[in-house]
């Protein structure tokens, strides 16, 4: 089932998206619905279906849920690790080590709902960055105790020049206003039995000109999602309604650095398309 949020009666309301329309689930955000399905021990799609209005109408998807916390994994694709090693003046294999052979994955805090935007909202370019790039990633929505409730698309927008200057600057390259986009919907886990076979593309447009095109498959993800979640939760019980970004397999180089007005479009099979204009923040 494709769940998300819409503006309905002036309130952010959970909705089922089907056949180009949305059916609101009155009085609930998507977070409320996930919590309720846990408290009542009910299957989420069943609960959503039983509570949704039968009136289906076209509606613009908002951010699928306001995440309690967003965590992001890094160097989970060989491409991300090798490119970063090539870029940095760090000791050889600094990033490759995390891709393989290290058991412990890279996991960093990306922020809260404060830094997240939804479809068609501006993603941020820091005013002190000249090389900001999108990082298209499969994202996992967690229920309590790390249960995977569903999947969405994320853009882990990153100020690569700040990270490149020194790896200790990673939090500044990664966490700032509008640094994370999520959407357009959350597809419930039952509809994505194999999250390692999704095709992902990323296109950057500047007016009518395409400045970047790239693709990958989640088949190239070098870690199991359960392993990422298991490490995340060690001594760190992240709350229900948190989101985990699983890392990027698409690398945008400096020639295609984002500029205000560029539009980044990420498409993932089985989930949909997440598009955002870029703004200076
Ligand atoms: O190691 C720095 C960040 C890596 C990252 O965000 C990714 O691989 O997606
Ligand atoms: Mg990333």
Structural summary, described in words:
The chain has helices at 30-39, 44-51, 78-87, 94-99, 160-165, 170-174, 225-233, and strands at residues 2-8, 11-18, 21-25, 70-74, 106-111, 116-117, 123-125, 132-133, 136-142, 148-156, 158-159, 180-188, 199-206, 209-217, 242-248, 263-268, 272-280. The protein is built from 7 helices and 17 strands. Strands 1, 2, 3, 4, 5, 6, 9, 10, 12 and 15 form a 10-stranded mixed sheet that branches. The chain folds into 2 domains: 2-58, no CATH class; 70-280, Fumarylacetoacetate hydrolase, domain 2 (Alpha-Beta Complex), CATH 3.90.850.10. 19% of the residues lie in helices and 37% in strands. The longest helix is centred in the N-terminal third of the chain and has 10 residues, at 30-39. The protein is globular, with a radius of gyration of 18 Å. By secondary structure, the chain is of the alpha+beta class. A hairpin with a 3-residue loop joins strand 16 and strand 17 (272-280). 2,5-dioxopentanoic acid (DO4) is lined by residues 72, 74-75, 80, 84, 106, 135, 156, 170, 247-248.
């Amino acid at each position: 089932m494709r769940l998300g949020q819409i503006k309905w009666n002036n309130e952010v309301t959970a909705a089922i998206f089907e056949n180009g329309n949305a059916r609101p689930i009155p009085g609930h955000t998507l977070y409320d619905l996930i919590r309720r399905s846990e408290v009542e021990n009910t299957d989420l799609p069943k609960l959503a279906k039983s509570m949704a209005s039968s009136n289906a109408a076209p509606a613009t998807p908002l951010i699928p849920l306001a995440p309690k916390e967003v965590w992001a994994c890094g160097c989970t694709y060989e491409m991300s690790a090798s490119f970063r090693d090539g870029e940095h003046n760090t000791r050889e294999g600094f990033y490759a080590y995390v891709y393989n052979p290290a058991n412990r994955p890279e996991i960093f805090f990306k922020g809260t709902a404060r830094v997240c935007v939804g479809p068609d909202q501006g993603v941020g370019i820091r005013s002190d960055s000249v090389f900001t790039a999108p990082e298209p990633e499969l994202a996992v929505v967690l229920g309590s105790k790390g249960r995977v409730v569903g999947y969405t698309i994320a853009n882990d927008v990153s100020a690569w020049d700040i990270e490149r200057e020194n790896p200790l600057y990673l939090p500044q390259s990664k966490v700032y206003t509008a640094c994370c986009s999520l959407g357009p919907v959350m597809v419930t886990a039952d509809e994505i039995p194999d999250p390692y076979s999704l095709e992902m593309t990323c296109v950057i447009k500047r007016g009518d000109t395409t400045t970047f095109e790239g693709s990958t498959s989640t088949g190239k993800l070098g870690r199991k999602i359960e392993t990422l979640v298991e490490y995340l939760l060690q001594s760190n019980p992240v709350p229900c309604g948190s989101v985990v970004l699983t890392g990027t397999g698409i690398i945008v180089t400096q020639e295609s650095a984002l500029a205000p007005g560029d539009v980044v479009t990420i498409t993932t099979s089985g989930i949909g398309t997440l598009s955002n204009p870029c703004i200076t923040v």
